């Protein structure tokens, strides 16, 4: 496979993958190559920079991120976003439905809902994002 730099008659630049230079030429002649921006079939090949290997060693790789740390940061970010929303408490499912059906002002809300209520909201097409409670809220 090769990656070619291409341009259309309107100077839109784009890349495309082909099995070989011959495959590109055959597809171009058959009118199968077109610009993804304007759909023009007047396409030409641009000069490509050659690949130059600078050393025989690969670049050092970073250690993989700690999944627990990533999850903790994500939960912290979700809780920070939730702190910007209105707490409707136990009325969460009902209020989410009212907002979804246009019966209440559209706004970000948070609250508590049972697993059954959450599944019903999802089945009704109401977008929710369950977030575990903060450990301070459990006591």
Polypeptide structure, described:
The chain has 139 residues and is α+β, with helices and mostly antiparallel strands. It has two domains: 2-45, no CATH class; 67-138, no CATH class. Helix content is 31%, strand content 17%. The chain is built from four helices and five strands. It has a three-stranded antiparallel β-sheet with strand order 2-1-3. Strands 4-5 form a two-stranded parallel sheet. A hairpin with a 4-residue loop joins strand 1 and strand 2. The longest helix has 16 residues, at 67-82. It starts with a strand and ends in a 16-residue tail after the last helix. Pfam families: DUF1178 (PF06676).
What is the typical, i.e. mean, pLDDT?
A: 88
Largest sheet: 3 strands, antiparallel
The tally of beta strands, per DSSP, is 5
| Biggest sheet strand line-up | 2-1-3
Radius of gyration: 27 Å
> What percentage of the residues does DSSP assign to strands (E)?
15-25%
Shape: elongated
SSE sequence, one letter per element: EEHEHEHEH
Q: Helix coverage percent of residues?
A: 25-40%
pLDDT < 50 runs, ≥5 residues: none
Number of helices: 4
Content-based structural category: alpha+beta
| Terminal CA distance | 60 Å
| Domain count | 2
Protein name: DUF1178 domain-containing protein
Organism: Zoogloea ramigera
Pfam families: DUF1178
InterPro entries: DUF1178
């Amino acid at each position: 496979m090769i990656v070619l730099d291409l341009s259309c008659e309107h100077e839109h630049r784009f890349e495309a993958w082909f099995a070989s230079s011959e495959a590109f030429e055959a597809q171009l002649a058959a009118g199968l190559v077109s610009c993804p921006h304007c759909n023009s079939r007047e396409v030409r090949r641009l000069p490509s920079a050659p690949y130059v290997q600078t050393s025989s060693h690969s670049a050092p790789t970073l250690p993989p991120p700690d999944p627990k740390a990533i999850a903790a940061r994500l939960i912290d970010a979700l809780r920070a976003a939730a702190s910007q929303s209105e707490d409707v408490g136990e009325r969460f499912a009902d209020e989410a439905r009212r907002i979804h059906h246009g019966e209440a002002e559209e706004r970000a809300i948070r609250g508590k809902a049972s697993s059954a209520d959450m599944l019903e909201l999802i089945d009704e097409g109401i977008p929710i994002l369950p977030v575990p409670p903060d450990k301070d809220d459990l006591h």
